[in-house]
Amino acid sequence: MSVVTDPRRSSRLRWYRGSAAHDEALLRVDPGRQGCWVLRAGSELDAARQPQFCALLDRAVRSGAQVVVLDLRGTDFLSIRLAALLGPAKANAWQHGVELRLLIGSLEVERALELAGVRPLFRHYSCVDDASEHPVDV
Q1: At what angle do helices 107-116 and 86-95 cross, to 10 degrees?
Q2: How crowded is residue 13: how many other Cβ atoms within 10 Å of its Cβ?
Q3: Cβ 116 vs Cβ 79: under 8 Å
Q4: Which residues on adjacent β-strands are paired with residue 99?
Q5: Which of 53, 36, 31, 57 is nearest to 44 (CA)?
Q6: How far from 13 is each of 3, 6, 16, 44, CA to CA, in Å?
Q7: Is 63 buried (19+), middle (13-18) or exposed (0-12) by CB count in 10 A?
Q8: Half-sphere exposure of 24 (CA within 13 A, CB side)
Q9: Helix runs in 7-117, H state only
Q10: Which residue ranges does the record assign to the STAS domain (predicted)?
Q11: pLDDT beyond 80 at 24
Q12: Whether 78 contacts 109, CB under 8 Å
């Protein structure tokens, strides 16, 4: 179990119990967009979810889609280890002709991306519609 301070409530601590690989629907695909996969993450993306996350991301990149959007707006916790994987994942996607894009909602996720050094690699998008637009723009 880890603890993270919440900068919005400095007197409170937020506890993250960790997660098991079998937890309920942590990553879901939104199939309703032509040429685009939207991966919706659960509330926590930690080391226990890394194998499933990497497998789904790889599947999305190899699907023939032009754009893969990782929607982290509902994510409260993103491990730095998993955040660091997004840099090589973006490069791998680009080699397959796919643009990997992020939607970020919480300050905690934004901070994890900054600490991992990958935040500058991704453009800011405000909604899924904007992020899923074509063409590939790297």
Answers
A1: 80
A2: 10
A3: no
A4: 67
A5: 53
A6: 7, 6, 10, 16
A7: middle
A8: 1
A9: 50-61, 80-84, 86-95, 107-116
A10: 38-135
A11: no
A12: yes
Q: Sketch out the chain's domains with CATH numbers.
A: 24-131 (3.30.750.24)
Question: Which residues does 117 contact at the CB level (< 8 Å), separation at least 6?
Answer: 84, 87
Q: Taking Cα atoms as reference points, which of 126, 132, 124 lies closest to residue 29?
A: 132
pLDDT band, very low/low/confident/very high, at 134 (cuts 50, 70, 90): low
Phi-psi region of 77 (alpha: psi -120 to 50; beta: other; left: phi over 0): beta
- Scanning the structure block, which residue is given the tokens 């179990």? 1
- Which position has the token pair 């023939």? 64
Which residue is associated with the tokens 């660091």? Answer: 84
pLDDT at position 42: 82
Give the chain's largest Cα–Cα span. Answer: 47
